Amino acid sequence: MADQALDGAASRPLLSLRNVNMTFGGVKALKNVSFEVLPGEVHCMAGENGSGKSTLIKVITGVYKPEAGAVINYDGQSYSHMSPVAAQAGGIQVIWQDLALFPEMTVAENIAFQTVIGRWPRLVNYAEMRRVATNALQRLGVTLDVDLALNHFPIAQRQIVAIARALVGQAKLVFMDEPTASLTQSETDYLLDIVRNLSASGVAVVFVSHRLAEVLEISSRVTVLRDGGLVGVYPTKGLTQSRITELMTGKTFGYSVLRRDLGTSPVMLEVKGLSRPGEFQDVSLTVRRGETLGITGLLGAGRTELALTLFGMRKPKSGSVVLDGNPVRFSSNRDAIAAGVAYLSEDRLSLGLIQPQAIADNMVIASLDKILSRGFISSDRKRSLVNRWIGDLGVKIGKQDDAISTLSGGNQQRVAIAKWLATDPKLLILDAPTVGVDVGARAGIFDIVSKLADSGLAIILISDEVPEVYFNADRVLHMAQGRIVGEYAPGATTLQTIEEAVYA
Amino acid sequence: MRRFVRSHATELALLAVIAVICVFLSFATDRFFTLGNAFDLLNTSSVNIIFAVGLLVVLIAGGIDISFAVAASVVQYLTATVLGWVGGGNWIVGLIIAGALGVALGCINAFLIHGFRIISIVATISTFNIFFGLLMFFTGGVSIYNLPDWLTTRVVLFEREMADGTWAEITLPVLIMAICVFATWALITRTTTGRQLYAFGDNPEGARRFGINIGAMQFIAFGWLGMMAGIAGLVQAHYAQEVVPNALYGRELDVLAAVVLGGARLGGGKGSVLGCILGVLLVSITQNGLNLMGVSPFAFKMIVGAIILAAITLSNTSIERLLPFLKSRRVPS
Questions:
Q1: Which pLDDT tens digit goes with each residue over A279-325?
Q2: Contact A428, A445 (CB under 8 A)
Q3: Element (H, E) at A84
Q4: E strands, A347-467, in order
Q5: Residues A339-343: what's their mean pLDDT?
Q6: Distance from CA of B285 to the nearest CA of A (A)
């Protein structure tokens, strides 16, 4: 409870918790935690996965009952524990990471669900529904076609719909769990504006995010949790990303740019004039053995489309690709995998891993031919292959046969990388590898990337977070509207220069 | 306009296919494009449309039902037997008995699915076999011809003599079908319960978090289909003038294909009454046309299968690809 820094006199807290303890099966999930939110403030909750953020949110919303001795004060009332009904009635709303929206239903139905549809059987009052939805959107300063089904809108706008829905319930306190995890930079900016509007209209927002730049930009105070305990509450002014990381992990990370000499290393991938109309134009690039090439740019710049083309899943209209000295023209990604290209999908949850299946099965899925014995899968070979990669990449697992969904984001990403390394690739394309991964685990993943490069792999690292490519790539390409518009060497450029170019 | 096209892509694609087939048939046969034939089509499609709107509700709620057609046979048999005991009766009484029996059979499915967490396809394949097995066992496969007079008498609601001396007629099944269609449309689009069914099918977990009663959703969906199946069973008995135990056996797949063709999604959350009707009509128009053209009945199934495949391919292809001028803005490169 060090560093308590409160303005004190300013205003009475909307919510305050003291002495909150929670134990799950002998493990202390929360240890004597205190938490406080002022009316209308934007408060960030920072901490790694497993630090107790979600548990704390569930205590506040009444899903979990804390151990005796806890004191919860909300909106002038005192409780020993919350109940979901009391939390809802008191205006506490949570926007879950998976949004819990109905994609086939209209925007109006999604927003006004609770008030208009979630009632006892009666006729639907469409006029009231539209009015409620339009009002909620207006409060956010947004106009959307409320009669169009939600699946016509991109994820950022669905996020807005989820926020608007929370507002309909007369929210006083809104929790946002990783709201920007799947948003691009400009969409994130848009969302942050909306959060500011909310806060200005008197709604307190508790923001949970792995992206520390956002935390610094949006919040007035930060509560840091680590291993179920409170590290402290800090005014955002004066904090830096590296300071928050230190507080969250208890470790210090040195950020420095790569300085590897690759001038004589042979070229692994050479792309000349590659084009796919409407997606990317005239892209030329080279990646050397042992080099990490960063590609950054806003979403829609054509980064993923380019990666999918190099991976054989889309066919280029014109241009040439030379891999390890041989001109290649893939007719499917099976060809690309056979030729030594591996692609780590940007959407780990739905595309990169088969969530309900076992860790071991996920890891060998792309290299089944390596574990065959007389034409059938050999469980011994599978086990030894899996053990090798788990050891090499430091994946923390319970059993090989546990479902992949039991792992944390960082460990899942390691399994996804291992899956591709098991195919013995020459070129590894990493598309947004740290989405939804903690700061501490990110460092671990980039350690792996750096080691892989040192072992001679050519790596393309795609990310819309400029610092990520700046600190982890030998060269950085900036893509915009399907073209490569800039090339930077991190050793000879400042981070700010690239960020200004990209976000301009 | 664009919004309408985007949210009704399937219905529009189906309408287009039906229009093409109709134009073709109008030129290929002289009987197709007559009022009499159009009314015939409605009369004969009524039973399938009633089945289809019932099944639609289950599909919207994220389930599937294989048992409804044999359930309708069971209802036919039981209703005929009950009417035989009671004696007399009329359409209202008959529909109430058939509807109630249907609801009861539908609730058996809902109970298995909700109570024991059996996935709906497995639960209803089981009840399909149980219903049909029980029916064949207890009837010994014997048909009932001795039906009440009111049930076997044709009821003509509208008639008109055509120039060639034939009569164009709309009969009672069309009215019953229209009521069922309207009731289903009202249920799924106008009531909060209907919208909850959509929500439940679309995102069950999301619906649960909103405190929607999941069990009630299953009972409403399968109960509604049961009611429609019971009504369709009685109408079919009226149309056929007899009750044959295996008359409806196999109908479930035809209806399922038509409903999915009409844009309902296996998996829930999507589907409309209009699409459903168009799906059934497409199949019956094709069959009717082949009949009039004198095509061998042995070729029917094959051609109907091909038409279903063509139509579903067309409606799955995004409307923007078919009609490029509707495309929304795209960054020029």
A1: 899 999 999 999 999 999 877 788 888 999 999 998 999 999 999 99
A2: no
A3: helix A84-89
A4: 372-373, 376-377, 427-431, 458-462
A5: 90
A6: 30
The first and second tokens of residue A32, run together, are 């004597």
What gap in Å lies between CA B253 and CA B255, rounded to an integer?
5
Beta-ladder partners of A95 = A176
Residue B323 has pLDDT above 70, yes or no: no
Mean residue pLDDT of chain A comes to 84
Cα R_g (chain A), whole angstroms: 25
Q: DSSP of A211-243, one letter per residue?
A: -HHHHHHH-SEEEEEETTEEEEEEESTT--HHH
| Positive/negative CA dihedral, B46, B51, B54, B56 | negative
**Averaged over B45-59, what is the pLDDT?**
97
Interchain CB distance below 8 Å, A482 and B202: no
- Whether the CB-CB separation of A321 and A329 falls below 8 Å is answered with yes
More confident residue, B112 or A138: B112
Mean pLDDT, chain B, whole residue set: 88
User: Do A105 and B269 make contact, defined as CB atoms within 8 angstroms?
Assistant: yes
* Across B16-41, average pLDDT: 89
d(CA A132, CA A115): 9
The minimum CA-CA distance between A95 and chain B, rounded to whole Å, is: 12
A210 vs A221: CA distance, rounded Å:
16
Residue A257 clears pLDDT 50, i.e. is over it: yes
- A145 contacts B3? CB cut-off 8 A: yes
Tell me the backbone φ, ψ of residue A18, rounded to 5 degrees.
-135, 150
**What is the DSSP track for B184-205?**
HHIIIIIBHHHHHHHHHHH-HH
- Residue B27's identity, in one-letter code, is F
Interface test with B, best of A63, A102, A483 (most B CBs within 10 A): A102
Alpha helices per DSSP H over chain B: 2-7, 9-28, 35-60, 68-86, 91-115, 120-139, 149-152, 172-185, 192-202, 204-209, 214-240, 251-261, 273-292, 300-316, 319-322
Cα dihedral A296, A297, A300, A302 in deg (nearest 10): -50
Best mutation target among A97, A105, A146, A168 (most B Cβ atoms within 10 Å) is A105
Closest CA to B279 of B264, B295, B297: B264
pLDDT given for residue B315 in this prediction: 67
Among the partner-chain residues A113, A122, A281, the one whose CB lies closest to the CB of B199 is: A113
Say how far residue B2 (Cα) sits from the centre of its chain. Answer: 29
- Looking at residue B76, its pLDDT comes to 94
The per-residue pLDDT for range A13-51, each reduced to its tens digit, is 899 999 999 887 777 889 999 999 999 999 999 887 778
Size (chain A), residues: 504
pTM: 0.75
Average pLDDT over residues A376-398: 81
Cβ contact A384:A391 at 8 Å: no
Model pLDDT for residues A68-109, shown as the tens digit of each residue: 888 999 988 888 888 877 888 888 988 876 667 898 999 999
Structure tokens at B255: 């209806």
Q: Which domains does chain A have, with CATH numbers?
A: 1-91+172-254 (3.40.50.300), 99-167 (no CATH), 267-503 (3.40.50.300)
The count of C-alpha atoms lying within 13 angstroms of the C-alpha of A257, restricted to the half-sphere facing its C-beta, is 19
Residue A311's identity, in one-letter code, is F
